[in-house]
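We treat protein structure as text, and this decision shapes the records that our systems exchange. We quote a single record here, exactly as it is kept in our systems:
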Amino acid sequence: MKKKLLFLLFSMNWWTFLCSQNQLPVFNKQKVIIQNDWLTEPVKAKAGIYQTPEGYIVLSNGLVSRTFTLQPNVASIGLDEMRHNTSYLRSVRPEASLTIDGYNFYVGGLAGQSVHNYLLKEWVPTLKAIPGVFRLTNYHVEDTKERFTWQKNREWMPKDLPWPIPGKELIFTYHLDDNAINILAERKNQDNQRPIIFSDDFKKLSPSWRMFVSKAHERNSFINEGKLGEIMALANTAVYAEQDYKNGTKVITAKIVPGTDHSSAWGPGIGLIFDNKTIKINIRSNEHKVGFFDGNNEQKSVAIWNAESIWLRLELKADKVEASASVDGVNWQFVGICILNDGEVPRKVRIGKMDPKGGNSDFDNKGSEGRCKIEAFSMLGELPMKSAAENISRLAYLKQIEVNVHYELYDNMPVFCKWITIDNQSGQEITINSFKSEILAASEPESAVDRKERWLYPNITVETDYNFGGMSEEYIYSSSVEWKKDSLYTTQVNYDLTTPCLLEVTPKIGPEQTIKSGQTFSSFRTWELLNDSWDRERKTLAYRRMMRSIAPWITENPILMHIRSSDNASVKKAIDQCAEVGFEMAIMTFWSGFDAENNSPENIARMKELADYARSKNIALGGYSLLASRHIDSANDVVLPEGQHPRFGNSPCLESNWGQEYFGKLYNLFEKTGLNVFEHDGSYPGDLCYSNLHPGHKGVKDSQWNQFKRITDFYKWCRSKGIYLNVPDLYFLNGSNKTGMGYREANWSLPRAQQEIIERQNIFDGTWSKTPSMGWMFVPLVEYQGGGEAATIEPLKDHLPHYGQRLANLFGAGVQACYRGPQLYDSPQTKELVMKWVNFYKKHREVLDSDIIHVRRPDGRDYDAILHVNPFGTEKGLLMVYNPLNGTIKQKLKINLYYTGLKDHAQISEQDGKIKKIRIDHNYDAEFEIEIPAKSQTWFVIK
């Protein structure tokens, strides 16, 4: 049942609000904190919502906490890993930001923090609400809910897992108020509505300009190579145009292309000359900033986007001049202010490169030559009185847009999830142009004064379900996540102020989604794992545990075969063999003849017959289809600018006619045949499409979001039907089960002995960021990409030692491979060998599917070993040790058993033999005596 805690901040005073929160338990850190290790011990870390004596809201499970102030608006004021008392937050920022119908808004947030290195509790009451933003109107608490339906394949899982993930969801609701609409109305297109007193686009130079050109270099010019307004000059020299200030001017704007200018204080800008002072706003090109000189001092410069062109603006009010900058001429960022004395009126205005005080001097070090261009200049008059009122009326619909910011915290894990939803009740369509669903000013993890090529990011593992382009979790940085420079953090140690310690979560383009009245838009989700250590094994172990919880279908780990030919006889033979040796799945592989796009009645009927036959043998059956890296035709392929290419060379647009029909065929195939496995190769890699003729997207800005939604809607549908998904991209959080563990296909044409070592290396390396069940390997039973007899296992009975080693490598790691060929065995001895390792895996399935601790990487020069750990199971661990040498290895191994959860003593049995007791010392190390014959392996079950 929902537990709603509603309050109306605009009709309640602060004390009334505090009294209304008495139903929330008081946050007592010492009582809530969990001291046990969540990775090795059962913990009762239940997520809950609390309040502090100050009235702050705390979302905590005793492992981590996120603290919010609600007055004068919502802001995160704490983000903590509690066991080690580590604070991750150093500065207050908005909770989100949006662009709706071209208007930019923050959601929540406070301003006024003096330094951004850290945040003190006593500062929080002094912080002010940001004007013109979405403000809190209510909040409520719910239990977590499933993101989509999952039909479990329980027989392939080591144990059942809950779905949805147990925990709590805290939802803050925001609206725009009248004040925000008034602020927006005041700035909305205001310059477009002002009368033009003077303007120049520098296509034909106005005679009112007077030029000043420094003589420091012969090429210094305001008209370069015949192009008016293009300044060629040394970096630290003055070249500008000047004219008299026009009476009635209230706003001066200029659009400037920084080009190759390398200036800072001498960068191009606008100067305003009074009788006793000159003020100036200019682009500090060499720093990607905009600065302001107020007549006496250079005010703090403001970072501006590294844009092709930048707009500068000076607005004269009754007692001051305000300076601002923009990359689009619509949305302005405040830069500086100059207070005017009574009666002060400008006399002249300058445009171009001036000295730091707006004059015409040159610096001793003149700098290098560069170009910049003045593209437009205007002097504008007073805003018409009626325009503001008209804008207020026109913008009133925005007050009926509701923004919800969602936070989830899960039981027993230091993991938060965050996303936003936008509910349109405005009575008209709106467009969500862009959004940032997380803006987090995190503490930097290193002191780097100088420039760095590779930065260490804050110790937070970030994952999103808007991820595409490859098999590595790092692809989120090209799709949805960025650790950015923080322009407000001017007291950091890095000299260039480039420490990447501001987390922004946003699609890199779009989404540009049209939302009808009555509809709701949902962003993608972001998960934040607060690490309690920098140790690689512990960090990746925590990540693997997180992935098992937020995408539990990845624990489905069926034993599978790739059938080389899809004719009925070959498929049925493979199904029969799978059933006999204990395999659980068969896939009609690439180049087999299986065609997922063949929706003819004959093919549908044949596939249904094969699926029914497989089901009668308790075998799952499916097939392969290629999506990206294929060419359809010019009408249906992605359209890119000249010189650009899709990520995989070729690719259809998923929202073209062909793309929409393709997915329609897939739904039809699986719905009508009962096939329940799909291997989807070359999944959507994030290609943009510039076409405006494809039915599923309007242009480039919505092309990525729409294509991604097209494919993930299908994957989620598959998950709801129990259809197993092999996808060689990171679509786990949208329903896929498995991706490549990490291998190079050409390696399977190497000599057999070399394949054995490389296979174990691939598994050792791949399981840092994947559980065994998350990645597949590959076993070419027949020749694959060359190599001849030396690389080929068939005839299987002639290469039993090698076949046995491959089975031991894979089943011993809990990693399933695509065994590709016409058969799994070709003799009684081969069948017995396969069944031996299948039975071994099924007997120890729970521990083998658990996490791997990396003991010694394979190198062919000594033993290699991995330790499976499952502190919450009956079998706490399973140690696999391999001997690649030509002689016996006999020695004692010291193995750390900390992550088995065992202390003092353990019971072990070698190869399921006699049980003996071993001691675990105070460092959690235990000694294992091994004696492994040449080219073989052994294992120890640990209880």
